[in-house]
Amino acid sequence: KYLNNNLLKSNRMRHYGTILFLIALLLPVLGKSQKISEEQLKKELQQLQVRIDSTGIVSNTVQELEKNYKIAKKNKYDAAFLIGAELVRTYSALDNAGKVIEVSTDLENTIDKNSPPYDVSNMYRMKARSLGDLGFLEDSHKAYLASRRYIEKIKNNDARHYYGSLFYSGYSSYFDQSKKQSDSVRLCLIKGLDEAEKISDKSDLISQNQKYDLIASIQGNLVLYYLWILKPGKPKIAEKYLLKSLRIAETKEIKPFNE
Fold it and tell me: 99: closest CA among 118, 84, 82?
């Protein structure tokens, strides 16, 4: 009986040893199978962007982007910047200035030669706007200047005009908030309008919807400038821009599209 018990214990030990050996062999394989590839993250990002464009930001959009951003950073994927830039856009659309600043500041560490200059410019622009909204005007100005530097690196003409228009439209708010050089508000809006009007209607990168929504938006801001910011106001000029904006709304099928 004593011998049988020893044999039983010996068999159990060999059995456990075999299991542990198999686990040790399988662990690296399991680890690799659970690691999400960069291509998979890019594919998920594209699917999220399509979903946002069609249905707007839903409850789990932020959670998915946050999760994938952390995974991409941990694995040092180039996609970390692309995912982070979309996360900044999402927080900006939700008017969460604190998160825009937090994520964009973190995202600056992932910028490299492969980062698309239009995404980098856009990130700095959104950071600048959020800093301005919270009253950090000098930091806002620095971020706007960084945004402008990257616009100059955009090679495609239509894309450069589009992001340049977004930049100048946003930059006008800095001069409004800081109360410095009030005429600079008008000059920035006029420059933004000029950039938007240079975008080709046949552009492969910028849709007509984006172009004319941007033009109508800037014209609307010029209406506000001539009515409320300029002292004394100039209602006749404000009316001119209002009619132009309304004409676009009547002749173009546009919806709010720009960032």
Answer: 84
Residue 4, token pair as written in the block: 């049988």
CA 163 to chain centre: 12
Residues 114 and 85 sit within 8 Å (Cβ to Cβ): no
Q: Whose CA is closest to 89, among 71, 74, 69?
A: 69
| CA–CA dist 129, 131 (Å, integer) | 5
User: Cβ distance 192 to 172 under 8 Å?
Assistant: yes
Residue 23 has pLDDT above 90, yes or no: no
Distance CA 21, CA 16 (A): 9
Which pLDDT tens digit goes with each residue over 142-197? 999 999 999 999 999 999 999 999 999 999 999 998 887 778 999 999 999 999 99
Is residue 87 within 8 A of residue 103, CB to CB? The reply is yes
Euclidean distance between CA atoms 70 and 79, whole angstroms: 11
Q: What is the DSSP string of 142-195?
A: HHHHHHHHHHTT--SHHHHHHHHHHHHHHHHHHHHHHTSSTHHHHHHHHHHHHH
What pLDDT does 49 receive? 81
195-236 pLDDT, tens digit per residue, is 999 999 999 999 999 999 999 999 999 999 999 998 899 999
